[in-house]
Backbone:
């Protein structure tokens, strides 16, 4: 007992109580330093693009490199953006990007729900087949798809860029949504069934409200894909007035490549990535939540 | 009375099927054509034929030339009009379009042309050339039309950019400052190396400031162009492709010597420095910031278009030009090469007459004038190769290139190799493996020979032998 009291009265914790905050602070400081370094490494190219977009051409080639433009040429933006019809490109891109987002959300939700929440013969085999389609590169499908769309009379329209998204063809989105749907307790669906709800009712009333983060992830990924899509519009569109932002930017690049007008190129690039970045800021919280719960995060 | 607002699965599927089916039918439906009255049909027969023309060239000057040519053609009193499309990347789009049976009526730049010819993707134009009142076989610079032929048939017509590819251009100020005599330009690679050593400058920290000669810049390195034969082989007198037997000739001491010379020039600067220098500044002569126009490279091997490009990219500098160096054994030989981008008609085109009419127009003086005024490019017509034409005086040194075609001891045409893309890859691999020291020159040459032969046997076994 005496020994126990003596042990209890010994200031065993005293040292560690004092040291822990220091250790914690050191650990946290190290963590933040590492995060800042990593953030700078990842953000470096973007920051360089932004910085260059305000420079004069000679400033681009100065050694050592200049991060802060002087003079600060804001006029690079109107000059670059007025050299090509970027407004038309943006409008054209939105015309099919929004349709593609709607298509991906609707179709992949239905497909994923079928794989996740409804039992039917061969379901898992079909799911594996569905996943295996991710391994077929676009270049392999390019000619057959082109022939299909040609026979449908869809060339030189946005239909080849929109309609397939309504057919649940993106197995990656299906996989993400299925993984999310599997995490929703089946009791919720069972209770709804007991109350006479149909499968579609369960999907719309029970599952979808809970799946907003996952849907935000799919929506943003599909929007980014449509925004960046280069090869699809390149192949299917034969009219420059229909060109989207990816083709327009490439046209712009070839236009200024011979003079290597990096400030203009960077101004146009910054302006074209800005909408995606802005969209990300709006849905950031939902997106991050979706990333963490769909298993996207490593 | 209860009102059921739920949507049953069956109802949803029914609606979905109706919606998708309706959309598909609407999409499939061809645009409704109004019924034509007989007189309208007669008028339609005389209606204008609109052909499509795809080109990959852009750029401010290139785009102006393309737009100018299309406008000049459409202004003429013809029943053919052209719709121009700037294709930012021709390979994938053209491949899909040809396979899908919807190719452009006319294409130009930038694909592996020999691969199109050898795979039957474009039409032979011999009958049309023979019946043309505008284009004759002798109208072009010798060798040029041959560089657009495969197995005896002609698949392309020089139209936009074709001409001599090899001149040694130099920056007069750098040469003068080094005390070298531009009247006696180096004739052999040994002499050229001495100039390279004299002209290459390093700062105190050992960083290169001025490169004398980059052996892989512009047409010396063959660059990204699809139709330029291998410069280094030719300087050693090596014909690396035998058209008769469809075989390669890389595993050869001449090609080994060429690889060693490339390495020698690179090593003097340092391989890493040389590569960094080229990727930092960029090559060729079109961009003001590239090494040669910006004055940090003294000499470059490049083509007839360089004087026009330098006129725009380096207006404050003076340049000269002379014959490219050769091996010691060929020190008395001067050589030139002609090549260029053909205009072609893909298979599957229905308006062939109209398409050929446009090609004829592009090869004529009017269109050539538009192209030259905007870009400094020539289309390869002999009649336009008169160095004394006043408009050619605008670009200093252009006359040398035009004269060189007639004055060269040897005039080479671009080889038509049906696996040109593969060969280009192997060539870059061979150059890099030697300069980085991964292989010696003998091994690199032997490997290139083996790889190209194997690929040729795989793709065209019937031709080899």
Residues:
């Amino acid at each position: 007992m005496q020994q126990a009291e003596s042990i209890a009265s010994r200031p065993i914790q005293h040292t560690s109580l004092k040291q822990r905050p220091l250790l914690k602070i050191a650990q946290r400081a190290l963590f933040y330093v590492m995060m800042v370094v990593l953030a700078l490494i990842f953000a470096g190219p973007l920051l360089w693009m932004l910085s260059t977009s305000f420079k004069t051409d000679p400033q681009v080639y100065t050694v050592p490199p200049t991060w802060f433009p002087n003079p600060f040429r804001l006029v690079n933006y109107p000059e670059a953006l007025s050299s090509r019809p970027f407004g038309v490109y943006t409008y054209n891109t939105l015309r099919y990007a929004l349709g593609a987002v709607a298509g991906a959300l609707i179709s992949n939700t239905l497909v994923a729900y079928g794989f996740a929440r409804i039992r039917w013969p061969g379901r898992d085999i079909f799911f594996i087949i569905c996943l295996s389609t991710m391994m077929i590169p676009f270049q392999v499908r390019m000619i057959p798809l082109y022939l299909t769309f040609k026979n449908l009379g869809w060339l030189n329209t946005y239909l080849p860029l929109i309609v397939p998204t309504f057919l649940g063809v993106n197995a990656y989105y299906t996989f993400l949504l299925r993984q999310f749907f599997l995490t929703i307790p089946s009791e919720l669906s069972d209770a709804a069934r007991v109350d006479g709800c149909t499968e579609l009712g369960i999907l719309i009333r029970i599952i979808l409200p809970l799946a907003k983060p996952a849907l935000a992830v799919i929506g943003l990924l599909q929007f980014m894909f449509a925004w960046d899509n280069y090869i699809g519009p390149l192949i299917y569109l034969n009219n420059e007035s229909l060109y989207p932002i990816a083709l327009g930017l490439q046209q712009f690049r070839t236009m200024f490549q011979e003079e290597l007008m990096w400030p203009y190129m960077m101004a146009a690039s910054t302006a074209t990535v800005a909408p995606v970045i802005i969209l990300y800021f709006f849905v950031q919280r939902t997106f991050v939540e979706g990333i963490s719960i769909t298993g996207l995060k490593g | 009375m209860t009102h059921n607002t739920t949507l049953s699965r069956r109802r949803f599927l029914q609606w979905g099927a109706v919606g998708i089916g309706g959309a598909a039918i609407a999409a499939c439906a061809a645009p409704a054509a109004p019924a034509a009255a007989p007189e309208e049909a007669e008028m339609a027969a005389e209606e204008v034929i609109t052909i499509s023309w795809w080109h990959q060239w852009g750029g401010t000057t290139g785009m102006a030339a393309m737009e100018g040519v299309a406008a000049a053609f459409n202004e003429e009193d013809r029943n053919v009009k052209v719709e121009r499309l700037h294709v930012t990347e021709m390979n994938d789009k053209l491949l899909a379009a040809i396979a899908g049976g919807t190719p452009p009526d006319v294409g130009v730049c930038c694909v592996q042309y020999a691969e199109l010819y050898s795979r039957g993707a474009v039409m032979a134009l011999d009958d049309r050339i023979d019946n043309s009142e505008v284009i004759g076989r002798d109208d072009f610079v010798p060798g040029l039309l041959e560089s657009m032929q495969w197995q005896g048939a002609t698949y392309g017509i020089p139209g936009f950019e074709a001409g001599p590819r090899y001149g040694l251009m130099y920056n007069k100020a750098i040469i003068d400052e080094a005390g070298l005599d531009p009247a006696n330009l180096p004739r052999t690679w040994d002499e050229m190396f001495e100039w390279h050593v004299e002209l290459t400058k390093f700062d105190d920290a050992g960083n290169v400031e001025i490169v004398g000669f980059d052996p892989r810049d512009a047409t010396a390195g063959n660059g990204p162009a699809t139709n330029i034969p291998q410069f280094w082989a030719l300087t050693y007198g090596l014909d690396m492709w035998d058209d008769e037997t469809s075989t390669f000739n890389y595993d050869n001491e001449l090609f080994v010597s060429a690889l060693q010379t490339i390495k020698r020039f690179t090593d003097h600067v340092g391989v890493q420095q040389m590569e960094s220098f080229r990727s930092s500044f960029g090559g060729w002569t079109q961009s003001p910031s590239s090494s040669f126009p910006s004055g940090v490279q003294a000499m470059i091997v490049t083509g007839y278009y360089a004087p026009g490009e330098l006129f725009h990219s380096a207006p404050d500098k003076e340049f000269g030009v002379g014959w490219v160096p050769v091996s010691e054994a060929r020190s008395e030989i001067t050589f030139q090469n002609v090549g260029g981008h053909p205009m072609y008609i893909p298979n599957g085109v229905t308006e062939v007459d109209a398409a050929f009419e446009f090609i004829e127009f592009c090869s004529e003086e009017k269109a050539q004038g538009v192209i030259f005024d905007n870009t400094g490019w020539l289309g390869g017509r002999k009649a336009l190769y008169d160095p004394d034409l006043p408009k050619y005086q605008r670009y200093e040194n252009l006359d040398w290139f035009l004269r060189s075609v007639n004055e060269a001891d040897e005039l080479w045409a671009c080889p038509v190799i049906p696996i040109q893309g593969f060969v280009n890859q192997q060539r870059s691999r061979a150059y890099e493996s030697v300069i980085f020291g991964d292989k010696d020159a003998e091994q690199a040459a032997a490997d290139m020979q083996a790889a190209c032969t194997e690929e040729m046997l795989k793709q065209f076994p019937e031709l080899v032998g």
Q: What stands out?
A: The mean pLDDT of chain A is 88. Residues 141 and 147 of chain A are 10 Å apart (CA to CA). The longest helix of chain A spans residues 12-52. Chain A touches chain B through 38 residues (CB under 8 Å).
